[in-house]
């Protein structure tokens, strides 16, 4: 079943559309859902043009594993050295610069890392299915949506015309014609209307001249003659208005489209998404614009036979989502004024075709506020896909990253190409930003920003190539706001001696946190034990959020188990020093809190040259956290000599070379190991550790704990 919206056949000649008696029929009332049960057009024939579609067999697999961007093409004479590929940052590519890399023409072939999402887009384009993509910003969602529009056939695109309805001026009629025919029809109608207007204009001036001449010759009142001429002008003006209503309004013009339409409706208000009718203050006087000329198409109509992309779909209000669901189900949607106070609210067109493929996108929270029926519509008749944040580091992927840099240079059009050592530095940065050992980041938007900043530096100095030094300078210039704030905080604390990195202090520990996704900061924690006024309790300050509060409570379980002190008679005060208005979220300060409290209870000083991060189980195991690389660098900047991290995070450490000599990294698997490194005063310390070792142990196999940094990179 083809969801064709044509009412009648377009005229073979534009002049055939001219006769005034032409009156387009109303479109049929049968919806695509009633016809075939799923609300989608059936596309049974495979797409034949190999230049504009995927190489896909009927079973949905590609003809060859090397298709669709899974290999990197280089100019003749550029080789790949497979012997060094495993250890080479360029994956064995023997190039002088990114200028040697050949860029694929199709967007779908330029997609890197998101293999599953890319395959789904290819299948969805062939079968005309909706897709919902969920993942972090900058991982390629909009690029995949644009790629789908290139894969769709364009031979059945349509122009949509709106005609005046003589029976009801507030219900314009809709007519669809093949793309390119609409302009011819409108031009023919407009030419005929101009002919009529010219004839009326000539006749009007003749009549006015006769009236004025008669008034002068008969010595009648000149004022009366002018008044009569004005009445004649008004009559002819009204007749001209009626002639203008015969010219149809070109609502959708696809005549110049070479691919299926692509509409990015992210953040669009209801009128821009669903269509609207302009307000006309003169409408009530009969002198205004005809209603069919005031109708504006929405993104759902402009994307007919194409792709509608909606990022952050959960930001749409519920009523708009309900209307969007109706448009998806019916394949057509009437346009009316979105403002209830506007004269456009009286106008409602016949159903306008909107048989689009919707690609909904968003972060993980997008599913929470998304209308369940709308999501069910996508899930029932389409695909859901999660966008990966990282990809395994392989020689093939490194070669793809080289191509990514070449693509960014070509897409910008003003940047010098990157030398081989500059590309190597960018790939190293990609590894670091992944937060996982043997992985590369797929946050290409931020990585692309680094490419552009480095290229701008080289261009400002009129160099033909972007070098490694440019990339290093760009890394400093392109620091995030959070990183700039973190560096500023560290400098201010040094000025006011709020950081203590010498000697030992009871109940004070240098904790570590992350701001945003790529910024580490020192966060001292202090603990004090005081007599309880009532029942003993744990009191924590510093804008703690839910996860942080729970971690403090978990710490108290270990303290109660090993301590000889009756905690029912003590209040434990915990302060997160200078946590700021944002507060503390996450549980990665657990070992910091535990160390501070134990130090305060036992009067054992903590070495202030040590910083630490890690989550703590109620059994005393140190569990992995996120952002360890950035936290270690923050500790080094603050002047610490040693940093304690979870044993499971050891593989995730990828600090810059400049910090390797500045700080020692000590991985720990339980609280006993943490205290052995952090506490001072040997006699008391040894007695404490003997007690702790008897009650704490490893409740988890360290190999099975894994790294949490990739799945939860924002833990504090």
Class per helix and strand makeup: alpha/beta
Average pLDDT works out at: 78
**Rough outline:** elongated
Query: Cα distance, first to last residue?
Result: 55 Å
Low-confidence stretches: 1-70, 698-716
The portion of residues forming beta strands comes to 15-25%
Which radius of gyration do the C-alpha atoms yield? 35 Å
Major sheet details = 7 strands, mixed
Query: Could you give the order of strands across the largest sheet?
Result: 20-21-19-18-23-26-27
Give the beta-strand count: 27
Supply the number of helical segments.
22
**Percent helix:** 25-40%
Description:
The chain has 22 helices and 27 strands. The protein has 716 residues and is an alpha/beta fold. The strands form nine sheets. Strands 20-21-19-18-23-26-27 form a seven-stranded mixed β-sheet. Strand 24 (615-616) and strand 25 form a beta hairpin. The longest helix has 37 residues, at 181-217. The protein is elongated, with a radius of gyration of 35 Å. The two termini are 55 Å apart. The relative contact order is 0.09. The model is unreliable at 1-70 and 698-716 (pLDDT under 50).
